[in-house]
Amino acid sequence: MPTTFTKEWDTPAYKGKTSFSTGLFIDGKFVDGSKGTTIDVINPTNGQLITKISEGLEEDVNLAVAAAQKAFDTTWGLNASGPKRGELLWKLAQLMETHKDELAAIEALDNGKTFDWALGVDVTFSINVVKYFAGWSDKISGQTLETDEKKLIYTRHEPIGVVGQIIPWNFPLLMLAWKIGPALATGNTIVLKPSEFTPLTAIRMCELIQEAGFPPGSVNIVTGYGPTVGAAISSHLKIEKVAFTGSTLVGRKIMEAAAKSNLKTVTLELGGKSPNIIFNDADLDQAVNWTAHGIFWNHGQACCAGTRIFVQSGIYDEFLEKLTAKAKAIRVGDPFGADIDQGPQVSQIQYDRILGYIDSGKADGAKVHLGGEPVGSEGYFIAPTIFTETKPDMRIVKEEIFGPVGVVIKFEDDDDIIKQANDTVYGLAAAVFTQNINRAIETAHKLQAGTVWVNCINQLHANVPFGGYKQSGIGRELGEYALLNYTNVKAVHINLGHTL
Fold first, then answer.
1. Is 269 a catalytic residue?
2. Taking each helix axis from N to C terminus, what angle separates 82-98 and 200-212, rounded to the nearest 10 degrees?
3. Which of 70, 72, 182, 294 has the least C-beta neighbours within 10 A?
4. Which of 55, 196, 269, 400 is catalytic?
5. What is the pTM of this model?
């Protein structure tokens, strides 16, 4: 049988405890992996072991798919009405609300984000997403199409069946909510793989899913590694759709596996290198505040982070001075400490990757204006970092760093900035700061990105679609648009009198 993880906190930010199974969640039960092997979950604040969890393998994915298919055929799918699906999702959201502090503490422990951010943003937004899709559950409808008086033709939006979902480590609970919300609302059953770096909130959510009353097999969580569990989900012949959030490199592998197996539907929310454009007429203080948020939110571990900061020459020096002061004021430390703004990066791998990019920027001749080094002697802490004097072909300008690192670039005229901003393989998000509404709209329309923020950045809502252009992905998360990823459209033709 799987072990139980128990943890008690007595910190300035949170006092409380948690206890839950560390097993795979298949067919409504916690079980060991097929080989009995485990994965170490590491605390990013000190590099020490938090707990061990069961390691899933291909055999476990097969068991989860069988359980999901059985549930789809018998207790979920077309066998559970829209109102019933909505009722269960709403109950799940209420249980998340009841346990929100505990979920935030698990998230902060596992991921390294501060408890206050985990509670105020990740958990709160996750609850809102589940509530939002609960409201959609009884509103999945088609159309009646007129041809002539002797035909009745209508469309149905039917659930696809068993869907595979693979989520990243940067927003573990939130990405789970983004994935399961539309899938369950539309009647699909799920086999989900959380990141092996941050699996704990997903495992804890299994107990809440169970308590809410979802049928066994409707949601299955298989913890494991990408090359085993992720690959098995992507290539499984009985999974008809896969949704993935993560790197563009892995997204390509998932598309390839889907094409080589059963041509399953694929939605991908991938990387970004988002431009943030600040014009001379911007509200300078607000532009600085939002820009700092755009770079350093979630320790820079956000696919939509505004890390290419283009500042018009008329305000460049003053903007850089104010941004520097803002970044210097960021307090880096224990996620459960008092008044902490930024915790550690998620893992040793990510820590080393970010420092490698910083070294690359230095070697290429960019100027380290601020930061550029680790913080402390243990854990994966990196100082907020700003580069200046960059060139367009530098890796720190072109590639996604996924850490608290931004580059500030001076520009002159409006036409040139559009070309610079769009000079990237990515197209997830962008931001524009100006008090001129015409300039704001014209610039927003010319930017090649799935989301454009004007006089703000990194603002997401449950009812607003999110996804990318170019190599930032396929399909959309959130909003009504997300539902389109989880249904098949069927046209029904009824002959009312035509004869041959």
1. yes
2. 130
3. 70
4. 269
5. 0.96
